[in-house]
Specification:
heterodimer; A: about 110 residues; mainly beta; seven-stranded mixed beta sheet; four-stranded antiparallel beta sheet; globular; B: about 120 residues; 11 strands
Chain lengths: ~110, ~120
């Protein structure tokens, strides 16, 4: 099984801050890493696919980097609507198995 | 525009079977470019992939749930279904259906989710 570990599990930040969330895979997953934003009562929304590709319609302040086992999601300047929970997900062994990280809750400072 | 909508009972008794259906519009579940999955979110925990349906009836399951899960598709109705038997309180969660792409595997369309509570 491929395990995905996110850090931190929670984060307090202010509007305008630059925020970085990391995700580590237990083995190399090349660039098969996707990032999601989830707000309470709504469906999760994909932000980044293939480690670095911005999903259509997602603001440019979101970016992704990394390959192999270590990945990063960066929000360049936090906006009020960005306070949510963020998940990484490996798709390296699709269709057999998909794994999500445990989530990072981003809260207003 | 692809849309997915979950339906089914919101309350299931312990030891019984949870049954949910995902109705898909704006895209065909018979399209070989996509997989159709169930994902759940237990309260206070993270997202967990349950399993997926692919064309020609191919199915794939999370090993931790494989002994209790069945996912099937009905191409005539363009919908796919989840059955989870012998449920316990640990199966209480919001259940989502979602589509993922064949090339990158990202879940690009999701249903709104349905909250299922297992009662004793």
């Amino acid at each position: 099984d491929i395990q995905m570990t996110q850090s931190p599990s929670s984060l307090s930040a202010s509007v305008g801050d630059r925020v970085t969330i990391t995700c580590r895979a237990s083995q190399s997953i090349s660039r098969f890493l996707n990032w999601y934003q989830h707000k309470p009562g709504k469906a999760p929304q994909v932000l980044i696919y293939g480690a670095t590709n911005l999903q259509s319609g997602v603001p440019f302040r979101f970016s992704g980097s990394g390959s192999g086992t270590d990945f990063t999601l960066t929000i360049s300047s936090l906006q009020p609507e960005d306070f949510a929970t963020y998940y990484c997900q490996q798709s390296f062994i699709t269709p057999s198995m998909n794994t999500f990280g445990q989530g990072t809750k981003l809260e207003i400072k | 525009q692809v849309q997915l909508q979950e339906s089914g009972p919101g309350l299931v008794k312990s030891s019984e079977t949870l049954s949910l259906t995902c109705n898909v519009s704006g895209g065909s579940i018979n399209n070989g470019n996509y997989y159709w999955s169930w994902i759940r979110l237990p309260a206070g925990k993270g997202l967990e992939w349950v399993g997926r349906f692919y064309i020609h009836g191919k199915t794939y399951y999370n090993p931790s749930l494989r002994s209790r899960v069945t996912i099937s598709g009905d191409t005539s109705k363009n919908q796919f279904s989840l059955r989870l038997n012998s449920v316990t309180a640990a199966d209480t969660a919001v259940y989502y259906c979602a589509r993922s792409g064949y090339s990158h595997g990202e879940f690009d369309y999701w249903g709104q989710g349905i909250r299922v509570t297992v009662s004793s």
